[in-house]
Amino acid sequence: MCFDLDSAPPIPPITGAAVSHEDLILEASDGNRFAAFLGTPEEAAETGVVILPDVRGLYRFYEELALRFAERGYTAIALDYFGRTAGAEKRGDEFEYLPHVRQTTVDGIQADVGACVAHLREAGCDAIFTVGFCFGGRSSWLAAASGHGLAGAIGFYGRSGEGGMPDGSAGPAQRAAEIACPILALQAGADENITAEENAAFGAALTAAGVEHELVTYAGAPHSFFDRKHGEFASDSEDAWNRVLAFIERRS
């Protein structure tokens, strides 16, 4: 598990920012219908962000994160992973997500990402980025190797090696030669499941493939440090958020 249900992004809202939001149901190329949340800035945006949540799928943390992006002038869509097995309806806090996580596939998730990218392009976004967390961090980097035409792919504490998906598919490190955009990896130095060796191997694979990338490890920070509740890691969270914004700004 990544974030607690009462967690929130460690990003202060911009007072007075005019944004709107909407619950969506999108349809992927394979016919899957899934829930998504759209945050839209007041003025038309040329840059869009697809947010890939942790293993619980779409819930409040990621809806709020979409609004924080919208306040900064980016149209943002947070998606849900479980349309194929749990339907597209809103779900409560008691939702048992793990049986549905085990049924996800890389192809299914990337089909859903593709639908989000298409929606953003239809809304006028030219430069589109993915931003993912944990399970979604890995999926964000895989999106860079899945033909979406992304401007960049960002992941927080994602698994980059083999064995990180229920279907046993290759990870971003193994698919580095297919990655077609810059990568930003924001990793936790005290992560119990992602080792320094795995992070180093990902960096080496990206370098060997000639992929522009930045891999940052926050020493002493635990998995899911990017959380308002983790005040002791506030400076790490602030640095990570600033790197995300700078990464997007440079490539928009």
Class of secondary structure makeup: alpha/beta
Shape: globular
Portion of residues in helices?
25-40%
The strand count comes to: 8
Strand order in space, largest sheet: 1-2-4-3-5-6-7-8
Oligomer: single chain
Beta content comes to: 15-25%
Distance from first to last alpha carbon: 32 Å
Major pleated sheet: 8 strands, mixed
The unreliable regions are none
Give the topology string: H per helix, E per strand: EEEHEHHHEHEEHEH
Helix tally? 7
Mean pLDDT: 95
Our Rg estimate from Cα atoms comes to 16 Å
Describe this structure in words.
With 252 residues, the protein is an alpha/beta fold. It is globular and about 40 Å long. It has an 8-stranded mixed sheet with strand order 1-2-4-3-5-6-7-8, sandwiched between helices. It has 7 helices and 8 strands.
Quick structural gist:
The chain has helices spanning 60-71, 83-86, 98-101, 106-122, 135-143, 196-208, 234-251, and strands spanning 19-27, 33-41, 47-52, 75-79, 127-133, 152-156, 183-188, 213-218.
Secondary-structure map:
Layout (H helix, E strand, L loop, with lengths): L18 E9 L5 E9 L5 E6 L7 H12 L3 E5 L3 H4 L11 H4 L4 H17 L4 E7 L1 H9 L8 E5 L26 E6 L7 H13 L4 E6 L15 H18 L1
Parallel strand pairs: 3-4, 3-5, 5-6, 6-7, 7-8
Antiparallel strand pairs: 1-2, 2-4
Supply database-style keywords.
eight-stranded mixed beta sheet; alpha/beta; 21% strand; globular
